[in-house]
Design goal:
The complex is a heterodimer of chains A (230) and B (222). Chain A has 230 residues and is an all-alpha fold. In chain A, 70% of the residues lie in helices and 2% in strands. In chain A, strand 1 (58-59) and strand 2 (65-66) form a beta hairpin. Chain A is globular. The chains are: A mainly alpha (230), B mainly alpha (222). At the A-B interface, helix 1, helix 2, strand 1, helix 4 and helix 7 of A face helix 2, helix 5, helix 6, helix 8 and helix 9 of B.
Amino acid sequence: MHVPDGFLDAPTSVATGVVAAGVVATSLRKARAELDDRTAPLAGLVAAFIFATQMLNFPVAGGTSGHLMGGAIAAVLVGPWTGLLATAVVFLVQSLLFADGGITALGTNVLLMGAVTVAVGWGVFRAVQTVLPKTTAMVPIAAGIGAFASVPVASVAFVGLYAVGGTADIPLDNLTTAMVGVHLLIGVGEGIITFLAVGSVIAVRPDLVHGARRVLEARELEVRTTRAAA
Amino acid sequence: MGGPHGHQLHFHGHSPVHRAPAHLKVLALLAFMLVVVATPRGWYPLYGVHLAVLLAVIVLSRVPPAYLVKRMVVEIPFVFFAILLPFVATGPRTEFLGLTVSESGLHAGAALLAKATLGVLASLALAATTEPQDLLAGLARLRMPALLVQIMGFMVRYLEVVTDELRRMRIARESRGFTARNPRHWPILARSFGALFIRSFERGERVHLAMLSRGYTGKMPT
């Protein structure tokens, strides 16, 4: 859910805006290394894809449903820098063309739901990947765990920002308990859907999954012979 | 794609607000919202002034108010949060409409409601009066990095293509009698998700090749 205008005070909003601009500038440079001159069309299409998937609702129970935040899965599918760039552009377009998320809260949204989810999702994914066996079957599992972790960490980061620049005196321990509790549940959903979705891409086009590259490079050519039919 | 494509929020018109340069509109929105966010809570008359300025711009833009009000639903989750604030915040208690609530929470909730509403309305006013292409040109004039403008351009251009693809997948699922009702149906939806990713990524590759064959070297022709 996007942070609107007025949730955090003006100095905090400006500070998160400056930090977010720095993060986006870095990812612009780094994404070129991931994609070279294909950066513009591919990151643009990935951004359109992330925007569209936020319309894909996964039913939970009793008529409620949710959609992916998508930072972690974007990092696994297209690499952390391109993923970050694409999510940042999604927030920019949502803020300017769809009135979703305040323009003064743009930096906060890019940092929390973009940078934090991408960084945590990718970091945990890589860490889990080093522990698990190096097979393509393990990539969706690592991605799911990374996505699960990314959501509560983002909510903790939000509480941290709120402690600095919040506009109401909510007891911080209550806010932390409520936010982390709710987001642990959301994280379980994010983790399961990410696991399923990455699995479905790996099954068809493993070469497209950025997070599977190391596994694919390590894979050796197998020649399987079958007995000719009699 | 023939002819100019409007996006979902754009309201076609020729008012002074529609014709104003996009980069000035973005700067004005940013400045206006910074002032709104910096307004201390409790200064209620000043919020009235903000609202009056915003309403004047909207009247000038000749966008029907009903058009904007209908699209303010994105704000609803935060209305709930703002209503909740007086009950969860700490500090001295006060009476309001017969309920005992936190005084600071009451003011914070009212300020949040005012700021978020002004924010949504102001953003809607920009979106309703600015074509995406003008917005992109405006952001380029504001020295947003060229690569970022290009990425945003591709996103805006292919947004409806990709969401349409998702819509066709939904129609295909439903025409086969499938409705997602509970988490047991997630694997099927996740496969749509995966298919959409592959189609989007491959479309990006095709677009890139098509651009190369037309002499793209990393810069957009002007």
